[in-house]
Design brief:
The chain has 344 residues and is mainly β. The chain is built from 2 helices and 28 strands.
């Protein structure tokens, strides 16, 4: 069925009339336009009204299709049959329909958005508490959407306030600490402190032996002075049987830094020599004890300031070898002090 359509060009301000009475020619009623189409574009400079003209009868029905495009809709009202059109519909230039039914006393007006629903569901038309958790997409609540709070404050749900979000002020370096019923703002103190950048520091001497689990102090955690050790071996050259190789099993992984021989009894006739070798028999050097060295005197191979650098690495259970030699077995006793640096 083809309808009679009244086309109205939108105004920047003022009133456009829509006939709602039933005209007659003589005594014969004439069909009037029950459908209205609003077209055109304008910049609103004041309120714009679309109003009924004439005398309607009960159940007179007018439908209005909005196809106009108006700017400044948020500043000025557009009113259709005494009902204000939401500003969102005007400024977005969306297409919508207005249904107007005369109930015998007044006009019942219903504004329907287009099928995309653009612009009609605004904050002032949402029922309070209507948006539930299920309606919000995951990750959709950003920091920008959270209630604004004062600087250095946070929002917490405090059990003492029946679960209501409460604003808590935080001074520099403070954190929130729960006590089972609420939160207290406090700074770390005692053996631990924290900067405003989140850097935590332990107080000096705050870690005691009881705080350390057994076997957790490894070689890597010890400073160099704690890793140093000395192994002492005594030899003599008083008989042919005494001038023989001495094998020593290393008790841990280490590096020999230097060796010192102390004369316990002077040697006679000729020089005593101690040669030192690694697990594979490679020599790291030797020390001579001539007849001129009196009791208490020392001979060295390397030093703490200039440690040995070759054939001086040992694993646990590796063999350390002393090869003594002296042409005449007559006298002499010696203390070999092997200085080591333990390794992991």
């Amino acid at each position: 069925m083809r309808k009679n359509v009244l086309e109205i060009t939108a105004l920047s301000t003022g009133t456009s009339g829509v006939p709602v009475g039933t005209p007659t020619i003589g005594s014969v009623p004439v069909a009037m336009a029950t459908t209205v189409r609003v077209v055109g574009s304008a910049s609103l400079s004041g309120a714009y009204n679309i109003s009924p003209t004439g005398t309607p009868v009960t159940n007179t029905f007018i439908e209005l299709y909005w196809g106009a495009s108006l700017s400044s809709g948020a500043s000025h009202a557009v009113v259709v049959f005494d009902k204000t059109v939401p500003a969102e519909l005007i400024t977005s230039a969306s297409k919508f329909k207005v249904e107007c039914l005369y109930n015998g006393t007044a006009w019942d007006v219903n504004i329907l958005p287009d099928d995309a629903g653009v612009g009609i569901v605004a904050a002032d038309r949402l029922v309070a508490d209507a948006v539930t958790t299920a309606k919000i997409a995951d990750d959709a609540v950003t920091l920008a959407k959270v209630q604004d709070v004062a600087a250095n404050s946070v929002l917490v749900r405090d059990a003492n306030s029946s679960g209501v979000l409460t604003e808590k002020a935080l001074a520099t370096t403070q954190i929130l600490i729960g006590d089972g019923t609420g939160f207290t703002a406090a700074a770390l103190s005692g053996d631990v402190t924290m900067t405003k950048a989140g850097v935590v520091t332990l107080a000096a001497n705050s870690v005691v032996t009881a705080d350390i689990t057994n076997a957790n102090v490894t070689v890597e955690k010890c400073e160099t002075t704690l890793l140093r050790d000395v192994i002492t071996i005594r030899t003599d050259s008083k008989s042919a049987a005494a001038v023989g190789n001495v094998n020593f099993t290393m008790p841990y992984k280490c590096k020999i830094t230097h060796i010192v021989v102390t004369v316990l009894e002077p040697t006679l006739n000729d020089t005593y020599t101690g040669t030192y070798k690694d697990n594979g028999g490679a020599s790291m050097g030797s020390i001579d004890v001539p007849i001129s060295m009196a009791i208490g005197n020392k001979g060295t191979l390397g030093s703490s300031g200039s440690p040995l650098s070759s054939n001086n690495d040992f694993n646990e259970n590796d063999n350390f070898l002393i090869e003594p030699s002296k042409s005449t077995q007559s006298s002499g006793a010696y203390l070999h002090s092997i200085y080591v640096l333990r390794e992991a």
